[in-house]
Amino acid sequence: MDWNNHLEKEKENFSGSGDATILVNESGIISFANQRVYENFGYSNHELIGEKLLNLMPGANLQASGEGEIIHQFGIHKDGHAFSLFFRMNAFSLEKEIHYLVVFHKVKDQSRLNQNQSYPINELVDIMYAIDESTIVAFTDEKGKIKSFNKKFCEVSKYSASELLGKDHRIINSGHHSKQFMQNLWRTISAGSVWQGEVKNRAKDGTYYWVDTTIVPFLNEMGKPYKYLAIRKEITEYKRVVKELKKSVHKLVDFQFALDASSIVAITDQKGTIKYVNDQFCRISKFSKEELIGQNHRIINSGFHSREFFNDLWKMISSGNVWKGEIKNMTKDGTYYWVDTTIVPFLDEHNKPYQYLAIRHEVTNRKIAEEEIQKMTGKIIDVQEDERKRLSRELHDGIGQNLYSHLITINRLQAEMSHPLLDQMRDEATEIIEELRHLSWELRPSVLDDLGLFPAIRSYLVRFSEHHHIRVHFDCYLNCRLYTNKEITIYRIIQEALTNIRKYAHTQEARVTISEIDEEIRVVIEDKGKGFDIEKVTRGVGLFSMEERARAAGGNLSIHSVEERGTKVFLEIPL
């Protein structure tokens, strides 16, 4: 009976069919499934990704299955019922890992699911029907002329039956393969051997499609082929997936190479146990991979950071957020190094981290340079303050005293004689003395050295309010005197902040608060004035000086301002 006619008759006797495609890795984990899979097994889209193929097809052994071999199997629907199916498998290697493309189709006659499997003719009908539904089938004569074919051939090639009948397969030649490729194919089958391979064809509308092809020669009594059966399975999607996978793998390899060449990389599990380190990690830490794998990062803990520092880090990443910061570590030989670190959590379907990727860049030289700059800045500030102190005393005790003596002399002359020039000299001398006192105070108030920060700030605020007509509210909650450098830092930052308020805030009031909180001195200078947009304002010398002074004292300075709502300057210095 003609192949096509036979299948058409059998289609009338059975109802329902389907096929599907699943991509799994060597461990049998599903990485791709098309829509037919979800329809046949009753799952929602993407629900099967990451599941085991054995959950759908218990007993399926891909490693033991022959390439292209059609195998009968039972599938398990999501609701628990079993159904009969046939599958064929194609294996391929990608970046040294084996993947399997599994194509299956349900048996049409499900009524025989639980019957004795001793009806080979019925099974053959089911197989023939399944092949016709999912596979391109064609017979040619010994010269390659197409003699019969199934509907799937027309569907995929987009040619009608009349256009295909009597033609050879050059009608769908894509020009992709070389002449030698086709000659080898023909040489194989004309010698009576089966040929298998992948062929790129072209449809009538000019689109291309790939087919996994098996050509079987039928031999006469002389052992010569008198016709050929070509069975093809369209694998265009499979080829696209493989191509995209290769591109993705190549990109990942490139990314990994770039990371390994420039960064310190480590991967840990959800508990922080190291699962992978690159060569850069070993080079900088001086530990071997064997010494690091299975450990956690306490193996390189320098002891520099507090327990709270790492608690905050762990809290951040375990909640699924990326953490960035600088960490001081210790190598195997006891030397220290700094790393600029980014830790990225990888989340599972429940948004819980199942592993962490830590990418680090060594910044030891930069940190050393920053420490040296900070030390140098501190020394410059100390020298500057010493010079201010010297100039202040010279103005007050030297020039100031001389002017005061001149004022006494002028007063004596006025007691003996009256003259307008004496009155003018007295007024000018008094004015100069007052200016010198103010300048001496600005340079370095003696009360700061003699009595401490609180009296010095209070005295300064009184003078500031009198001169500039800005009322400053002052609250101080210090329990003891601070180190001289901290007191000077606080005094200068308050002085600079109030100068900025006087120049730019356009307000009549301000507030200064000094408090001691958790082993830390916190200073807040605020106003309700004009405010400004921090992103748009150029950082001047005053702000730079404030930040450097804070940094030199081991503290931190921050500014918050909103247009028309005022400005707050925050200074935090450890006790």
Protein described:
By secondary structure, this protein is an alpha+beta fold. The chain has five domains: about 5-130, 2-Layer Sandwich (Beta-Lactamase), CATH 3.30.450.20; about 135-240, PAS domain (Beta-Lactamase); about 265-360, 2-Layer Sandwich (Beta-Lactamase); about 370-445; about 450-575, Histidine kinase-like ATPase, C-terminal domain (Heat Shock Protein 90). About 40% of the residues lie in helices and about 30% in strands. It is built from 16 helices and 20 strands. The strands form four sheets. It has a five-stranded antiparallel β-sheet. It has a five-stranded antiparallel β-sheet with strand order 7-6-10-9-8, with helices on both faces. Strands 12-11-15-14-13 form a five-stranded antiparallel β-sheet, with helices on both faces. The longest helix has about 55 residues, at about 365-415. The radius of gyration is 43 Å and the shape is rod-shaped.
In short:
With 575 residues, this protein is α+β, with helices and mostly antiparallel strands.
